[in-house]
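The protein record filed here:
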Amino acid sequence: FYGDGKKSSDFVYCFFEIVDLPIIAVITGGDSRTAYALAPLELDASDSEDPNEPKNRQHHLLFKWTCNKDESVCAPHVTKSRIYINNGPFKPNQIYKFELTVACKNLQPTTASQLIIMTETKMP
């Protein structure tokens, strides 16, 4: 109030937007690894997550696996499971680039990739 009986009001408006964090896509084993060409190949996305949800509420994620060769072992595979066993067989002495895409209903999909060098001999 001013002495002359007039009111004065100051308003400050503040707006903010809550933005979802992006999905985290991770393939266990790093950027590259070796594997025995004639054995089933385990691909593991266990460390992938939606950071906007609690760790015990991650069941909404979908995992799509593909690789870079024109072979039946590289056909797209979509699953809700974090572990994918690809039974091959793979060609020895070849490098396969596997790509994981993690998606859910309301967020942009995120990808990770891993190079896998297929060997002729079993790994210990």
User: Anything to note?
Assistant: The mean pLDDT is 92. The domain at 32-119 is CATH 2.60.40 (Immunoglobulin-like). Residues 19 and 52 are 10 Å apart (CA to CA).
